[in-house]
Amino acid sequence: MAEHPSDLRTPLGRVRFLGAARTGTTDAWFVHVTSIALIPLTVGFVWLILDLLRKDYNGVRAELARPIPAILLLAFVLAGIVHMELGMRSIIVDYINGQSRAWALAANTLFAALLALACVYATLRIAFT
């Protein structure tokens, strides 16, 4: 690995992939993990949606009352929301400066949390009523 004069990381930090702020690449790892998790979840979600297209409202409610489809739907939605929040966080950190960065990060987190809460509520309401 070539040494760059502008690289402020210590040799141990280079090995551990830690930046100058010593925060590492935690967000990047989470983005990769959610990306990998979304591959089989997307296949399962598409299978579930194609199965639900043939059913009426009561059939959809009966299908989502079973644990496997409901868990699959919730896992897909929550992994997608986490992936979205991390992606938007990296865009905000890269392109917004100053005090507006803190507001944008707070709005991003709040939006993701509210979206997750709404999706979980809707899924559980359909599943348990």
Helices and strands, with pairings:
Layout: H1 11-15, H2 26-52, H3 57-64, H4 67-95, H5 99-128
Helix pairs in contact: 2-4, 4-5
Brief sketch in words of this structure:
With 129 residues, the protein is an all-alpha fold. It has five helices and no strands.
Structure in words:
With 129 residues, this protein is an all-alpha fold. The chain has one domain (23-128): 3 helical TM bundles of succinate and fumarate reductases. The protein is built from 5 helices and no strands. Helix 4 (67-95) packs antiparallel against helix 5 (99-128). The model has no long low-confidence stretch (mean pLDDT 87).
Q: How many helix segments? A: 5
Shape estimate = elongated
Our estimate of the beta-strand percent is: under 5%
- Provide the number of structural domains: 1
CATH topology: 3 helical TM bundles of succinate and fumarate reductases
| Classification by helices and strands | mainly alpha
Mean pLDDT: 87
The count of DSSP E runs of length 2 or more, i.e. the number of strands, is: 0
Q: In the CATH hierarchy, what is the class? A: Mainly Alpha
Q: Low-confidence parts lasting 5 or more residues at pLDDT below 50? A: none
Helix content: over 70%
The CATH fourth-level homologous superfamily: Fumarate reductase/succinate dehydrogenase, transmembrane subunit
Distance between the termini: 59 Å
What integer value in Å does the Rg equal? Answer: 20 Å
Key traits:
129 residues, mainly alpha, 3 helical TM bundles of succinate and fumarate reductases, 77% helix
